[in-house]
Amino acid sequence: MSVPERAQAQAEIDRLRAAIRHHDHCYYVLDAPEISDAEYDILMRELQALEANWPDLITPDSPTQRVGGAPSPAFGSVTHPEPMLSLDNAFSAAEVEAFDRRVRERLGVDGPVTYCAEPKLDGLAVSLLYENGRLVRGATRGDGVSGEDVTANLRTLPSLPLRLAGGDWPAFLEVRGEVYMPRAGFLAMNQRLQEAGERVFANPRNAAAGSLRQLDARVTARRPLRWFAYGLGAGSNDPALPDTHFKRLGRLRGWGLPVCPLNRRVSGVAGLLAYHGEMQARRAELPFEIDGVVYKVDAVASQQHLGFVSRAPRWALAHKYAAEEAVTRVLAVAFQVGRTGAVTPVARLAPVAVGGVIVSNVSLHNFDEMRRKDVRIGDTVIVRRAGDVIPEVVRVVIEERPDDAAEVALPTQCPECGAAVVRPEGEAIARCSGQLACPAQRKEALRHFASRRAMDIDGLGDKLIEALVDSGRVHDPADLYGLGAPELAALPRMAEKSAANIVAAIARSRATTLPRFLYALGIREVGEATARTLAAHFGDLPPLMAADAEALQAVSDVGPVVSAHIAAFFREPHNREVIARLLAAGVHWPATSVPAPAKASPLQGKRVVLTGTLAGLTREQAKAEILARGGAVSESVSARTDYVVAGEAAGSKLDKARALGVTVLDEAAFLALLQPD
Ligand code: IVH
Q: Does ligand 1 lie within 6 Å of residue 316's CB atom?
């Protein structure tokens, strides 16, 4: 290997070591991490990879040669009576199977091994020394060999007994456990800190560590810290102790030490994996954070037989949950155009595994949001995906921003059709003004039209819609009904049989319902529920198409915004033409039950405003009577109002009607109008 290469590796190794030391200091000493765990892991992995390639460059003081944090000089340093080990990690069922196989091989057993399965609490490990049942010292794990003496602080934890209950404890006993901060306490504490203008903690684990490592124990006392005991250190070979880990935990509980109630004895790999799955499902609702589960061979004799390798026991394994955060780079920002023309920035990422899936695209929601997060091309970003949640960019790692990181401008023209992109005053969303002339909007509109809850055209998927629009065969939903099987079969990758199936599905969709049809039109703000209400209210399409915004607002749950969208949609000549062609192509629905008025009523076509309380009928009943006679009910009085029906205690609407000279009807006059001649 050439010298320059080696020099380059050395320089990179130096840089990584310095960065890791800096972040160790921030994390362990200042309790103020500047980067996420995921980012830290990346630095560490890069260093490990370089050192693996250049083993002669490894030095004993490299961060890779040490586990855990250096003790802070602020606390006295203590040497643990027995080293505090760490655990091997597994991320997959295969790794758990391999662990179980190794255990059985070493123990020489065929059948399933009994394990104790426990949540892996996300806090910090502590060691507590009890002499003759009295707490004499408490320490952090530190680097595993020596830690910090935090006795004074640990004594403030209400759940930590200063004297053990009972009397059957070994004279010298080291209890090990995890100090953590429950989620609720963490949130409340952070809120208090924020209100006081103080620094908030990044997560419950940092908060627990920061709270335990306070120089003033009175501060620790005010922090909502808890802990669970999970094992024994020195003194664990006392012959009077039970012979299994699980029973020992029970004994600890008997001595007044808190033990996690979710610990359970399970059998074999199947038991381990079932426990892992169950805790994962319950993870979000647990009162504390866990980052995995821990499996321990239950029989103490078997643990002793298995022993240790370097820093971890062979009898235990941490089965971790997939990291919910990962670090990656923004390769580009594309703008996608949705059905309503919304132009959405989407970050194209170097693919990265987050929360168990590979993420390579993530929506930045809208232009303002992208600017607020200040995402630029070339940036390193933290991506998060918790549970089934859609992945999102949490933040940019500003320190990693390259000099040539490029800001992204909102396009002035639609990337799909070239029409102007407009952004109305005060709105976060920019839209393409091309409407259905825009192929992207056209494709989205067709996708929506064909979707299961709309016209339900089986087999008309995204790829086919792309091909149909791109080849110019389909411009709008009405064109679908003119497609023939040979035409479809001529498209790439389309078999004759499936072409025939799709033509049949399109034909079947002609028989629909009015709510489905209205929903399928893709009118802004008209979802399934509104489509149903509109259908029930108007009974058929022509009266709906004729209704103006005011008449539309008479429909329950239709406000000014929705009514304006509906009215605008039906005013648009292109939309009217597409609807006419759909009907001509045979799209139909059964008549609904709203009866047409038998006879012309004096209320036909009239705009009515109801105010005050009527004695004989409720406002809803009055409204229904007016609508059934072809009238419209609106909320506010204007010069275009025909009648104001004034009941008891009518207020300002009555005054306005008088001022505008609108006809005012009292209840009797109104009832008279409802009567047939
Ligand atoms: S047993 C030799 N049990 O995980 C076995 N550890 O990666 C030592 N942890 O430092 C650990 N919950 O801080 C054990 N139920 C549990 C645990 C647990 C959380 C932490 C502990 C330890 C780290 C090891």
A: yes
